[in-house]
Amino acid sequence: MIAPSHPDAVAPERQHWIDCRDVRLRVHEWGDPAAMPVLLSHGFIDHARGFDRLAPRLAEHFRVIALDSRGHGDSGWGDSYMWSLDVMDVVRVLHWIGRPTHLVGHSKGGGQVTDAAVAAPERVRQVVNLDGFGPPDDEGFARPGAPDTSKLSLAERGAMYLDRRREADRRLAWPAGRSFEDLVARRGQQNPGLEKSWLRYFVYHAAREDVDGWRWKADPQMIVGGFGPFKPKWIAPGWKPLRAPMLALIGSKLDVWGPLPEPVLSERLGHVRDVTRGTVEGSGHFLHMEQPAETARLILEFLDR
Amino acid sequence: MSHTGNTTRLQHGRVGLALQTFSLRREDSSLPPLLLLHALGAGSDAWRHALPAWDGGIHGLDFAGHGASDWILGGGYYAEHFLADADIALAALGDRAAVAGAGIGAYVALLLAGSRPERIPAALLFPGAGLAGAGSMPDFDAPEMVSLEAWEARIAADAADYPSSTDPRVSGAGRDFRPDDYVAAFAQSATCLLFGEIGPAGDVGKRGPMPSWWMNSLRDARSEAVSGPAATAFARLAERAR
After folding, report:
1. Is the CB of residue B109 less than 8 Å from the CB of residue B99?
2. What is the spatial distance between Cα A67 and Cα A103, in angstroms, rounded to a whole number?
3. Closest CB to B73 among A22, A168, A237
4. Are B84 and A165 in contact (CB < 8 Å)?
5. Of A56, A125, A286, B220, which residue is the least packed, with the fewest Cβ within 10 Å?
6. B11 at the A interface (CB within 8 A)?
7. Å from A5 to nearest chain B CA?
8. Which residue, B53, B59, B50, is CA-closest to B22?
9. Residue A305, SS3?
10. Any CB–CB contact under 8 A between B152 and chain A?
11. Distance CA B12, CA A250 (A)
12. How far away is chain B from the Cα of A90, in angstroms, using its nearest Cα?
């Protein structure tokens, strides 16, 4: 299959591997290597090539580096996934870059780059968080089709988690026999806001063709999921020490994964010392894919160059 | 599942686990199997010199990263990961067992007994490494900032205390938060929890203050403190598990 093209997308100019102990991370680069660096971090089950429309716009002024999180894109898989591991991976990439860097993260990546800026303040200039402010306080985002667990006790939810983990060894690889169009249809259900040609471009880089069919690059073990006492309301208080100024962007359209109800969002951002807020008109949760030009404009307006 | 000698290999995702059989069930036993869960950084061998009189069969699990179990590629150790390790061992034992744990193994035993109350007639908790985690809640007035250098230094320092079969990164599982309301939900769901005073390793001198979840759980009507040596606590476990 010939790689789908998209009139607005620019492939990275350079790619590198970064070793994080026993997992290898892939980064993709655009722009002048001597320019001030900007590090981009994607959300859950996405990948760095999802920035192929945002990155070239930022690369007019910056060296842009997009990270495939462990388990995603071209990066290596781990046997277990934890928030803190992803945050430390971002910090390791900052060490690899070796000079103070602007951070831009989407969704899960937005929360993680903010945590990385707290962990490595001397390595971070400014932070742009694209709708990555955590799930609502109680039950998380209500995903369509997901079982309603809100009435279950914690112990019952623990049992459900254990049932899933007992079968985790059946999800070591994605099944055979799927076509590229099957994968496009699947992702299209989750992202009805993406235009068709971009959806195909995005899915092409999210997947690979094996002899027996197309498979996602993302590790299916991540879908099995974890469990624990973590509460979404713990997220923002952890940002109190953040020294870097933050641009907090949301989309104007209510989407499955955000934005949070305004009172919850403003309460969380109340913990951030220096925050500028903005809204991308006409976008749902996937700002950089749905409205890349306007998202880039707001980011460039915010960042020191 | 596969057997070599007295070790059964189990699978949790991509991570292979070792379940060691210390003794087989006597045919006329009225006891369920006993599943032993070790403290953080140790391994099932730690029980070898503290095995109780128990004719239902005694089995010791090595949590991921410990003993003869695989290390987790990329790290990523947390108490609920060990909980799922223990649940996979429970399944291998026919989905009915008494459970005894030390340290983080005790915390896991409590979570398991609460998640699987109909399969675990009683669980016995001993003090030991990894019992308290990082406390009950993050300090929101002074959130912790952990640099990469500090993170790496911690792992190196913890490794000095562990046998070479233990992945130094397991120490991360001893730094998670264990909120009182979270632990209480599992304690209240459990059929019977017993709290041993002195761990089988006799490490009573090393331990700090008991975590608040331990003290709170003791107030629950289904819980019982057992004073005296480990053997006394195991005898009580046998009475409650029969």
Report:
1. yes
2. 11
3. A22
4. yes
5. B220
6. yes
7. 34
8. B59
9. coil
10. no
11. 38
12. 10
Cα gap A151→B35, rounded to integer Å: 31
pLDDT tens-digit series, residues A160-181 = 999 999 999 999 999 999 999 9
Q: Which tokens belong to A94?
A: 């900052």
- For residue A36, the surrounding DSSP H or E stretch is none
Return the amino acid letter for A161. Answer: Y
Question: Are the beta carbons of A89 and A67 closer than 8 angstroms?
Answer: yes
Question: What is the C-alpha to C-alpha distance for residues A138 and B98, in angstroms, rounded to an integer?
Answer: 33
- What separation in angstroms does the CA of B177 have from each of A61, A85, B232? 42, 16, 31
pLDDT at B4 over 70: no
Please give the interface size between A and B, counted as residue pairs whose CB atoms are below 8 Å apart: 138
Task: Specify whether the backbone of A175 is left (phi greater than 0), alpha (psi in -120 to 50) or beta.
Answer: beta
Burial of residue B126, with CB atoms counted within 10 A of its CB: 0-12 exposed, 13-18 middle, 19 or more buried? buried
**Rounded distance, CA B75 to CA B82, Å?**
13
**Cα–Cα dist A168/B82, whole Å:** 14
Task: Dig out the tokens for B87 from the structure.
Answer: 């649940």
Q: Pairing state of beta strands A207-210 and A124-130?
A: unpaired
CA distance A48 to B95: 43
**pLDDT tens-digit map of A183-206:** 999 999 989 889 999 999 999 999
| Predicted complex ipTM exceeds 0.85 | yes
Residues from chain B contacting residue A95 (CB–CB below 8 Å): 148
**Counting Cβ atoms within 10 Å, is residue A143 exposed (0-12), middle (13-18) or buried (19+)?**
exposed
- Kindly determine whether residue B13 and residue A91, on different chains, have CB atoms separated by under 8 Å: no
Inter-chain touch B74–A162, beta carbons under 8 Å: no
Is the separation of the CB atoms in A115 and A87 below 8 Å? yes
> In which residue are the tokens 């303040």 written?
A121
